[in-house]
Design a protein that fits this description.
The complex is a heterodimer.
Chain A lengths: L1 E7 L2 E7 L4 H16 L4 E5 L8 H16 L3 E5 L3 H8 L3 H4 L2 E2 L2 H8 L1
Parallel strand pairs in A: 2-3, 3-4, 4-5
Antiparallel strand pairs in A: 1-2
Helix pairs in contact in A: 1-2
Chain B lengths: L3 E10 L5 H14 L4 H22 L7 E9 L2 E8 L23 H8 L2 E5 L6 E8 L11 E3 L6
Classes of the chains: A alpha/beta, B alpha+beta.
Chain lengths: 111, 156
């Protein structure tokens, strides 16, 4: 899986491209863990190009969110496709994480 | 009970990188059976979770082992089976996850139960597990979602 990492002020934007399943979850988890360990505190995960997510992919996001919060930061999501949002709604994660409709709105709200 | 309108089957090897190929096949099958897009997406997740469990738990990460998936389309419902030949699923050890604690693993079967209208698991075999998911067509009678009929022979 390709994972783009860019920075906008103090926000680190992580944009995975493709399916976030068992095959990609470990890479995603490692990437996010390393960012938090290096000191990034605001992680924005842009899911615009993720059309599929399963429990492994969500687990990677949850683990990173907890890690970020434990270090005084946070992890937020933006640009969820409808199919992905439907899976989030089957867990409580939808209520525990801040979700923005688009990246610009997320950056504006979190700056 | 109505007869099967159509059926198809697919065998994947127990490596995670084959899950994408499985999803492409399953989506084409469901599309051919007239399943709406949101239901397709949900069933891709449910079947993917069962295959992931087969890779991770039944085969304990060992590749090269078979996972069989079949789809039957009936007038009123879809019947999907997922079968492996590894370590059998033990329904007595299954614990529903505490979603309020935001677990980062162990949520797969919860999703399967949320998505399917009924779930049965056949472990009365020499080896392996066969899951049977039933998803009713819109407007058709449904069973109570969330129940796992452990140990029962799968519906046919």
């Amino acid at each position: 899986m390709d994972i783009d990492v860019t920075r906008a002020q103090d926000i680190t934007v992580v944009m995975p491209r493709g399916d976030l399943d068992m095959a990609a979850a470990d890479q995603m988890r490692r990437t996010l863990t390393e960012l938090v360990d290096k000191g990034d505190r605001k992680l924005l995960i842009d899911l615009e190009l993720v059309g599929y997510i399963d429990s492994s992919g969500m687990g990677a996001l949850v683990a990173a969110m907890k890690h970020a919060r434990n270090t005084g930061g946070d992890l937020r999501l933006c640009a969820l496709q409808d199919d992905v949002r439907a899976i989030f709604e089957m867990t409580r994660l939808i209520k525990a994480v801040t979700i923005h409709p688009t990246r610009p709105e997320a950056l504006g709200a979190w700056a | 009970m109505s007869g099967a309108a159509a059926s198809g089957s697919f065998t994947m090897s127990s490596e995670a990188e084959h899950l994408g190929r499985l999803r492409r096949w399953l989506r084409a099958e469901l599309e051919g059976l007239g399943v709406d897009r949101p239901t397709q997406a949900a069933l891709l997740v449910a079947v993917g979770e069962l295959c992931t469990n087969s890779i991770r738990h039944a085969y304990e990460g060992h590749g090269g082992q078979p996972i069989n998936v079949s789809v039957q389309g009936h007038e009123d419902r879809l019947v999907i089976e997922v079968e492996d030949f590894g370590r059998s699923f033990d329904p007595t050890r299954y614990v529903e996850p505490d979603l309020d604690a935001l677990p980062d693993h162990g949520v797969g079967l919860h999703l399967v139960r949320r998505i399917a209208d009924s779930v049965s698991v056949d472990v009365r075999r020499e080896r392996g597990t066969r899951w049977t998911l039933v998803k009713y067509r819109p407007g058709r009678a449904t069973a109570s979602p969330g129940s796992v009929d452990a140990g029962a022979a799968p519906a046919s």
